[in-house]
Amino acid sequence: MNVVAIVQARMASSRLPGKVLKEIVGRPMLWHIINRVEKSEYINKIIVAATTDKKDDQIEEFAIKYNIGIYRGSENDIVDRFYNAAKNYNVDIIVRIWGDCPLIDPAIIDKTMKEFLSNQADYANNFYPPTFPFGMNVEVYTFKTLKKIWKDTNDRFFREYPFDYIYENKTLLKTIFVKNDIDLSYIHWTVDYIEDFILVTKIFKNLYKKNKVFHMADILNVIKKKPELRSINEGLKRNIEYYKELNKTHGS
Asked: How far is residue 215's CA from residue 187's CA, in Å, rounded to a whole number?
């Protein structure tokens, strides 16, 4: 069983262009994501799914430098990009990771994978209903599930946001939604804005040690000791509002 993490990354960003290669404690943000994901007990390989935009040449150069698999495809058709990346690398199970989540916790990846496998699911995620901090987002598909989406819909919205297709068709697929023990969805650790990048950098400066990965509990402990960190990125508009509204409408 070939379990591959596909990190979705691009240089274009309306709020913070080039963020995936901005340096945190001397390394590109994308490096930190890969370094953390590879500590998962389930991941056999990590590849980066970039776009064909010329700006993403820098991401390809990064991947070559660090001997990481790379696939480049459509910017907006995420389903096609992931499907062809998975096909190229003979993937059985895809673990989708976002390129704006430098604090991603390998233990949370493993929790999601464990529930996915034990339930013999077609699809799993840990962000709906939202209970983990945003920035700990994990999605898992079988290749068969991803191929089904790729074949069954040409809707531009679903092709860019495959979770919505999964949700609309959840009676046809075995779906698992992994929850945290307590609701921490009010916490935002994705890097959307410069304020997020400043916060994440401060967290790394407090916790990063070579060859050792810190976890969600460590981050929460730092913020508890230094509550002033919370104010750095508070009050910013977030995509989480979509999932909260979805949860209100459909329940959990």
From this structure: 15
**Which pair of tokens denotes residue 90?**
């003979």
What fold characterizes domain 3-250?
Spore Coat Polysaccharide Biosynthesis Protein SpsA; Chain A (3.90.550)
Q: Which residues contact 43 (CB under 8 A, 6 or more apart)?
A: 3, 4, 5, 37, 95, 109
| 213 contacts: CB under 8 Å, gap ≥ 6 | 35, 36, 39, 106
Question: What's the DSSP call for residue 190?
Answer: S
Q: Whose CA is closest to 159, among 149, 148, 171, 174?
A: 149
CA distances from 16 to 11, 22, 181 (A): 9, 10, 32
- Mean pLDDT split into 10-residue runs, the chain, 252 residues: 97 90 97 98 97 97 97 95 97 97 98 98 94 96 96 92 88 93 95 96 95 94 96 76 44 39
